[in-house]
Design a protein that fits this description.
Blueprint (H helix, E strand, L loop, with lengths): L12 H13 L12 E6 L5 H12 L3 E6 L7 E2 L12 E2 H10 L3 E5 L7 H5 L2 H9 L4 E3 L7 H14 L6 E6 L9 H12 L3 E5 L8 H4 L3 E3 L2 H5 L4 E5 L23 H4 L6 E3 L12 H4 L6 H22 L1
Parallel strand pairs: 1-2, 1-5, 3-4, 5-6, 7-8, 7-10, 8-9, 10-11
The site of phosphoric acid mono(formamide)ester has 9 residues, from α2.
């Protein structure tokens, strides 16, 4: 593996899960692999879990780590070619990227959808420029359309907690006051489509995701009906994808909040969320604090997913 931008690049899933299990059971076994190798983690957007878990994963592999918050302490970056740079952005991404490549062996990039141009977002304009111009292996720490390290951690978690070979996994939209990208739900749907699980997506009308990510999932507009018999509830908000509504909040209806009444419709489902989560918007205190909530082990598996992927990238150097 050279670049990692989608869970599709994990290859054979059984093998990927076996590699993840090995990493989890032997976190320091590959310290020599990363010795004298440097990871640059670059953040265009805020992070708690991705920052800490990826740094921890790199340290477990013996790597040196540099973390750069682009908007705090670095020159502000112009990202558009052809712009007359007479404003407040003194450096262009097209110089910054190869320069950053000179200082490291591997680059992780966090760059959310900007909701300014659906075309730019869905073409992964920023991430693709890193792949093209850095001369280094690049992995996504959440880009405009996918969050593959999160999805891999989610998949590892479901494998660990599932009680049947083919669990019913329901991804539900839930309300949020701000416009959030579709990266997590797209990526989760992409991951679920690689498995043999029963996969259902439920959301209000108007929140349809890109069909390329929905794949063979069943879309159910009645949230109660979707929850019936579920083994896992994966909650997430996302802004509208379709047409002129791209990037808009159409609905903050708290009847979509995941609560105990809805969880009672399930097959004693586990509750999952990538975090951070707005309590009593996305999920009630009661549900997220219940024994069925596995959001903390899910977050802990972020180290495992990042380390498994970083290890594969190091092996390719
Ligand atoms: N789930 C996740 O990516 O969390 P952070 O935004 O805190 O990194």
């Amino acid at each position: 593996m050279r670049h990692f931008t989608s869970v599709k690049q994990l290859g054979d899933l059984k093998e990927a899960f076996a590699k993840a299990r090995y990493v989890k059971e032997n976190p320091f076994a590959d310290q020599a692999l990363g010795r004298n190798r440097t990871l640059l983690m670059l953040f265009f957007n805020s992070s708690l879990r991705t920052r800490l878990s990826t740094q921890k994963a790199a340290m477990n592999l013996g790597m040196n780590v540099i973390v750069l918050d682009v908007n705090q302490g670095a020159w502000k970056l112009e990202t558009e070619r052809g712009v007359i740079m007479d404003g407040d952005r003194p450096e262009h991404l097209l110089e910054a990227i190869p320069v950053m490549g000179c200082y490291c062996d591997v680059i992780g990039v966090r760059s959310f959808a900007r909701f300014e141009s659906k075309e730019d977002d869905y073409n992964e304009k920023i991430l693709e420029q890193f792949i093209r111009y850095s001369g280094r292996p690049v992995f996504s720490m959440e880009a405009a359309t996918r969050h593959p390290l999160q999805t891999f951690a989610d998949m590892i978690t479901i494998e660990e907690y599932k009680k049947t070979e083919r669990p019913k996994v329901v991804m539900t939209w839930a309300p949020h006051p701000k416009a959030l990208p579709q990266a997590v739900p797209n990526s989760f749907a992409e991951g679920m489509n690689l498995t043999g699980y029963e996969f259902v997506i439920t959301h209000p009308e108007g929140y349809e995701l890109d069909p390329a990510f929905v794949g063979k999932a069943r879309v159910e507009y009645d949230q109660d009906k979707a929850f019936e018999g579920a083994d896992f509830i994966y909650a997430k908000n996302w802004a509208a994808y379709s047409g002129d509504n791209y990037g808009k909040v159409l609905n903050t209806d708290r009847r979509w909040t995941v609560d105990s009444r809805k969880m009672a419709l399930t097959n004693n489902a586990f509750f999952m969320h990538c975090l951070p989560v707005r309590r009593n918007m996305i999920v009630t205190d009661e549900v997220i604090e219940s024994p069925q909530s596995i959001v903390i082990p899910e977050a802990a598996n972020r180290v495992v997913s990042a380390q498994t992927v970083l290890k594969e990238i190091l092996l390719s150097l």
